[in-house]
Amino acid sequence: MSEPAVVIAGGGPTGLMLAGELALAGVDVAIVERRASQDLVGARAGGLQSRTIEVLDQRGIADRFLSEGQIAQVHGFAQNRLDISDLPTRHNYGLALWQSHIERILAAWVTELSVPIYRGREVTGFAQDEGGVDVELADGQRLRAEYLVGCDGGRSLVRKTAGIEFPGWDPTTSSLIAEVELTEVPKLGIHRDAKGTHAFGRAEYEIRNGEVVFMDRGPVRVMVTEQQLGATSEPTLRDLSEALVAVWGTDFGVHSPTWISRFTDMTRQAASYRKGRVLLAGDAAHVHYPVGGQGLNIGVQDAVNLGWKLAQVVKTTSSESLLDTYHDVRHPVAARVLRDTMAQVALLRPDDRTNALREIMSAVLGMDEPRRRLAAEMAGLDVHYDLGEGHPLLGRRVPDLDLVTANGPLRVFTLLHDARPVLLNLGEPGCFDIAPWADRVQLIDAKYDGTWELPAIGVVTAPSALLVRPDGYVAWVKDQSRLGLADALTTWFGPPRERAPAPNDN
Ligand SMILES: Cc1cc2nc3c(=O)[nH]c(=O)nc-3n(C[C@H](O)[C@H](O)[C@H](O)COP(=O)(O)OP(=O)(O)OC[C@H]3O[C@@H](n4cnc5c(N)ncnc54)[C@H](O)[C@@H]3O)c2cc1C
Asked: Between the CA of residue 146 and those of 28, 133, 277, what are the distances in Å?
């Protein structure tokens, strides 16, 4: 094994995305993954939200996912479907695609980018010093790196070893989820009763007219709310049978499980996403109940926020303090997701008073304005990083507009495929000189005559120039940011480089 600049513990969706981002930025990165292959036991995430599809589109790989999944209105809140078809984004939908496929496609991308994935290897400890981190593996090998990122899931060894607190809330509900054979198959779909929310389905399904239509063959996927909390051992077929009997009075002849797992609404968040040379992302940094389908999505988006920053620090383009902005902006995003999932767990409680409350919420979410706002939030489209006062675009995602350039039409997201920042000049061509940053920042002269509309905000004044970071968030808007352009370029992309003396310079 070579000595990479960055070791990522864990090659789930977050670790894979981060590896891709670092590789695009030219950083030597390696993943250490406990699983022997990318195969995933059990069903986890069922799809991608709009903003995650946008983020993948920014790297030119969204089509790989779109071609394998099913586009649908999948966003929701406490089982209220939130239609986002009228939100201003090219991807005004979600994508139904199982996590096993999402991981496979991401792993293929990362492999194309030549990132080594050390499979069947486990990080068992590490020690950091001023110059780097010694990462210990279960087989006794050691890897020396400049930085270690824990993308190793909710039980993160990296988080625990770093001594980072994980405060939050203990579970109030627990469910078993499994793929099994049943001798008697009940009505497929979601069932709600006084004992909780349960579901029967199949891995293979189609979405027709917005409704899930399961195939009539294959093993059954079961989700059942347990009537007791606090189990500590791995769930067994017997546990599943008992949980089914407790709810339905029968276990439907359950047998031949492919896998059985348990999830709860335990809700916790790392107190800090960084300790020296060790960082956390994805489930290692935040865990919550899966309702609303947010976990994988915000993990991937953590990675896209962290990747370019870590790359610049490794390449000494930026000082280490840039890494603190990762915690500063991503911690509040996950904290809001945690709050949203706790609210949904509360709204899904099966008592009559909560049912009444849920009916009122449904009526409220049937109204346009509340629906559009919450939909933008659940789709990840309204994320706002606090970059100070100024134009509404500042700290928000740049829309994927159709630009016109001297070389023909160009989509904004196409400019981000290489994960390089871009100064987009929509005013007088040639009016910017960013030569001292030209090695890092692209300068594009373009025209755009349409409206600028942001999800949950509405139409905003058209900017004449804006600086877009590699993660697709706007760092500066001409005449409408606290910082001048040179300050913004320095803050985000490092100090100016001396110009090479021109031949006629003295
Ligand atoms: C039932 C269920 C349904 C869900 N539905 C959704 C959904 O619809 N939408 C959504 O967005 N999210 C959903 N989630 C959440 C989603 O699955 C997680 O948020 C997502 O997997 C987090 O990705 P990650 O890469 O951060 O962590 P993980 O996917 O947990 O990956 C961590 C990786 O690290 C590896 N690892 C762990 N420890 C070590 C170690 N010491 N050394 C080396 N490797 C290690 C693991 O093998 C694993 O590959 C759901 C979760 C559950 C349980």
From this structure: 10, 6, 7
User: Would you say the CB of residue 296 lies under 6 angstroms from ligand 1?
Assistant: yes
Separation in Å, CA 207 to CA 68, 73, 162, 303 = 13, 10, 44, 30
pLDDT tens-place string over residues 7-24: 999 999 999 999 999 999
Q: Report how far ligand 1's centroid is from the alpha carbon of 57 (Å).
A: 22
Total length of the chain: 506
12: CA distance to ligand 1 center in Å? 6
Q: Is the dihedral of CA 352, 357, 363, 365 positive or negative?
A: negative
| Predicted confidence (pLDDT) at residue 464 exceeds the cutoff of 80 | yes
Model confidence at 502, pLDDT cuts 50, 70, 90, reads: very low
**Among 48, 95, 87, CA closest to 375:** 87
Q: Is 181 in the pocket of ligand 1 (CB under 6 A)?
A: no
Share of the chain above pLDDT 70, in %: 98
Instruction: Read off the pLDDT band of 505 (50, 70, 90).
Output: very low
Q: Are 247 and 200 within 8 A, CB to CB?
A: no
342-382 pLDDT, tens digit per residue, is 999 999 998 999 999 999 999 999 999 999 999 999 999 99
Element containing residue 31 per DSSP (H, E): strand 29-33
Residue 503 scores a pLDDT above 60: no
Q: Which atom of ligand 1 is nearest to the CA of 121?
A: 43
Query: Helices 50-58 and 295-314: crossing angle, nearest 10°?
Result: 30
| Distance separating alpha carbons of residues 224 and 245, to the nearest angstrom | 10
Measured CA to CA, the distance from residue 308 to residue 312 in angstroms comes to: 6
| CA distance readout (Å), 125 to 82, 195, 237 | 43, 42, 34
97: CB partners within 8 A, 6+ apart: 46, 47, 48, 65, 68, 69, 70
- Is pTM beyond 0.85? Reply is yes
Apex 205 CA angle, 199 and 211, nearest 5? 75
263 lines ligand 1 (CB under 6 A): yes
Distance from Cα 375 to the centre of ligand 1, integer Å: 24
Contact yes or no for 95/47 (Cβ under 8 A): yes
For residues 283 and 199, what is the distance between their CA atoms, to the nearest angstrom? 24
Using the atom order of ligand 1, give the atom closest to the CA of residue 32. Answer: 43
Mapped onto helix, strand or coil, the DSSP state of residue 133 is strand
CA of 456 to the centre of ligand 1 (A): 29
